[in-house]
What does this fold into?
Amino acid sequence: LRPERNQIEHIARQAASGQRRRRNVVRAGIGDDCAVLRAPAGHDLLVTTDFTLEGVHFRREWYPATVVGHRCLTRGLSDIAAMGGDPLAAFLSLALPPGLEQAWVDGFFRGLLRLARRFDVPLAGGDLAQSELRQAPGSPGRVLADIVVVGAVPSGQAVLRSGARPGDTIYVTGALGGAAAAVAELLRGGRDRKAAGSYQPIPRLEIGRALRRRRLASAMIDLSDGLSIDLDRVCESSGVGAEVDAAAIPCARLRGRMVELEMALHGGEDYELLFTAPASSRVPARIAGVPIRAIGRITGGRKLFLVRKGRKSLLRPQGWEYFR
Amino acid sequence: LRPERNQIEHIARQAASGQRRRRNVVRAGIGDDCAVLRAPAGHDLLVTTDFTLEGVHFRREWYPATVVGHRCLTRGLSDIAAMGGDPLAAFLSLALPPGLEQAWVDGFFRGLLRLARRFDVPLAGGDLAQSELRQAPGSPGRVLADIVVVGAVPSGQAVLRSGARPGDTIYVTGALGGAAAAVAELLRGGRDRKAAGSYQPIPRLEIGRALRRRRLASAMIDLSDGLSIDLDRVCESSGVGAEVDAAAIPCARLRGRMVELEMALHGGEDYELLFTAPASSRVPARIAGVPIRAIGRITGGRKLFLVRKGRKSLLRPQGWEYFR
It folds into this structure.
């Protein structure tokens, strides 16, 4: 399909306004067959792609367009953070239903580009399409986005999921369960919907980078799907198990009240980092102003356990399915 | 959403079987937060993303799943070819409707991975999602794919769209209009539907690379949307115009008959290359066995003209809209 030329130019102009120091990374951006990037010498490349699909990952009536754009890029940047990397450029494939208001599209890009500028990541290309050729009667049409982030990390230093060893301590950044609690509020249709829909997680790029530089993390992942499921991924990749202390989990606060443990254990979209480090490592209590909490330890088995009031029970990896 | 772990493993295994010589490009592939690639020294990176959306870019009842997978990757590889580059790795974001038969998914990957092996491109990552959480009654659900290809080209040598100069000759590879004629056959519902639906264009990677190495092309683009619209893009980027000789356009043959000129002028998805070269350049008649034809010249104006039987008329950039 042929997107309007002036829409592409409009996006390219908006995107260009976000490029400052990094302009020299992008030799050719939006408007050629490919983007051309200068690859930093002595570095490995990181590549991540993440869908943001209306009806699956968000509802248009719940979130302002700026929040949808912000979160779309957060998904990609958070993956770069989880490798200890540095983002070089972002690419967006975006399919829009016919008849979608321009104000929504502008808001989406405003949110996405604001976050891009904060971390100095140029939007260097992508694809633009209609999500449907004809609007089916009664069908609202769907927004489909796929964000690609290309990053770099000094050669051989990417922090993988596979490096956790029995005896390592498990840490998480920030507080957990806040995003899931906000969705629960939206589902309830309570009066705090507006506040709940405006939640904009910040990818932990400085923390990931600091952990990699100081060689503190033996394994790392971002908490996109929930602590239990993402910890299980680290354990599976590393061939290990884990014990988590329920009392040590930093539960987020929503309007002054601590969220339920279930939300912190299984809620997704917090975009905090989970990492492991040898017990002998001196992991600071804060990095870049964000608290770092030890929540358990890696074990030799292949199972996950939750220790709660002295009792140990199996921790089943499960994400909290938002829209079911 | 949480894709089945065994589905990811299944894809990772299939993808791994496609990696031979290039295995050393991918340090970590499917199964971490990001793929980790070794960046070749002295090279710029190329990045391209392209949607393949059911109902917009293909109809499931028209094409075998293998053809949809093949074409999905062709879109990305063809963009790398148009820069004179070398593909390093591909990434696929794929959203599938609930209830889609596994045989379709397997066929899609078979087609995609066969093409990937042919050009030695590992599938190094991506995203997997459901395209809808619940199947709406009466809704067939849609397959959504976004292909990302990362490539490399010696630093500063990417062939851009912006290098065409007045006096340059315009060339195209292969023959044009075949893909559009096949779609016309499918739309007519004729008895050659099966043959028409099995058309699998081959990205012109060898040709793009050869032109870049010999420094023959001043500008290049792949013909994804149609000669008139893609030539206009080169002219716009280069700030020039063009004259095309109708008689020189290599029209494709379908069942022994030459396709109409309109198909060759405006039909998309041929994935041939269009490039320009100074009139003094010695451009070979064939590269990698594919004929190269001079079809016109770049002019100083900003307009496109078609010269047909001695008469010059305005050539309006227009794509042939398949599904309208």
Q: What stands out?
A: Helices of chain B lie at 5-16, 65-81, 102-118, 178-188, 193-197, 205-213, 227-238, 261-266. The mean pLDDT of chain B is 90. DSSP finds eight helices and 16 strands in chain B. The radius of gyration of chain B is 20 Å.
